[in-house]
Amino acid sequence: MSRAYETFDDARDQESVTRMISLAFGGTPEGSREWLTKAGVEHLRVVRDDARTVAALLRIPMGAFFGGRSVPLLGVAGVAVSPEERGRGQAAFMMKRFVESASEEGWALAGLYASTHRLYRKFGYEQAGHRFGYTVPLVRIDAEGAMNGGGGDGSLRVVALDESDDPEIRACYNAFASMYEGMLDRGPYIWARVRKMREETYRGFGVRDGAGTLRGYLYLCQQRPSPFGRFNVALTDFVFNDEAAGRRLWGFLHDFSMMGEDLTFAGGPTHPALQLLQQQRHKVELKDDWLIRVVDVKRAIESRGYSPAIDATLNIEVADDVVSGNVGTWRVRIAEGRAIAERGKPQLSGGGSLRVSARGLATIYSGFNTARQARLLGLADGDELGLAMADSVFARSTPWMSDMY
Fold it and tell me: How much is the mean pLDDT over the chain?
């Protein structure tokens, strides 16, 4: 048997990949073909077994915010295996090669949403953050000041957005997203899904002040839940950079309550917009926990931000069955909000010591679990100083994202 992980070739792979994507995710061949085209076939990778195309995945270049800084992250989506090839190790071979190639290319992190955790945990992925869904009855929107222009002085106006507003929209999003652990630093694939998700188109509306500055925005779609003319409002983004803009957006959404029923959008265990409401009349439902994998220890540690109040040295001993370049003891020096990671000897003097598997490093790095919590799960160990230091260095706010990929 000759098995290889290779780039997509349209002439050889189009029919096979379209078929396996539609069968894996319950879509139509036409919809699957459209998704492949929009995603960019240059980002597809396939597994060929004796010249047969038997598995495929999509690579998504982007970043993720940790400690207020963007860390390079290579996402993966659309992992699919031909039904007749399942159970023969094709997905395992593909994911191992994906991680190895991401390491060879110098990515800091890899990330995904998992249909099953067992496969991805074998290759160093672990739970790293949340994505919840919120449902808010439109008539229950009661954010203080929402009905009088948000800021109380009526200076904030809602405007329709189009592609000419993209630079401001992206700057507004990045300012918002960088405050929350795990939010994506989006690439083209994710930004395209903000405006069109599957078959639904989302329209943008922004809040501008008297000087014309964009201080918040959202993208919405009206979905009809019944034949009686009423609709739900679904959002792909709900972004604001100050309280008044958030309240003004709530007022804009409340205006849909005349014919609208429920508002739905996604985020973490909570979303800052929900904290502007006066009553807890919304529902929160867990959608998915997403996973990451540290592909390059040095780059991942040095790319992210840290609290400028921390001045510490931590020795991290990493075990990694897939990326040999990660294996060993790393001496991590944190000061002035940045870190330097250097290889050290197995026994290093000074600082605390932490021992982690690839999975343990992923969940501690993101802040999903503290080092002590990871030890409880068998993913980490170390001396008390090392565990305490790791808790202080990596644990920040709860990691979450609003995007699905």
Answer: 94
Contact 28, 22 (CB under 8 A): yes
Crossing angle of helices 384-394 and 358-366, rounded to 10°: 50
For domain 296-394, say whether CATH 3.30.1050.10 is its number. yes
| Distances in whole angstroms, Cα of residue 194 to Cα of each of 221, 265, 291, 404 | 11, 12, 21, 10
Within 8 A by CB and 6+ apart from 53, the residues are 12, 13, 16, 17, 46, 47, 82
Fold for the domain defined by 132-290: Aminopeptidase (3.40.630)
Strands 260-267 and 69-81: unpaired
Long-range contacts of 96-100 (CB under 8 A, 24+ apart): 96/123, 96/322, 97/5, 97/45, 97/47, 98/5, 98/45, 98/57, 98/59, 99/123, 99/124, 99/293, 99/295, 99/322, 99/323, 100/322, 100/323
Share of the chain above pLDDT 90, in %: 90
Average pLDDT over residues 237-247: 97
pLDDT in tens, 327-375: 999 999 999 999 999 997 655 556 799 999 999 999 999 999 999 999 9
Report how far apart, in Å, the C-alpha atoms of 213 and of each of 152, 241, 252 are.
Answer: 17, 11, 18
Q: What is the mean pLDDT of residues 302-310?
A: 97
Q: In this predicted model, what pLDDT tens digit does every residue of 106-139 receive, in sequence order?
A: 999 999 999 999 999 999 999 999 999 999 999 9
CATH class, 3-124 region: alpha beta
Closest listed residue to residue 52, CA positions, set 23, 96, 76, 19? 19
The DSSP bridge pattern shows strands 231-240 and 260-267 to be: parallel
Amino acid identity, position 319: A
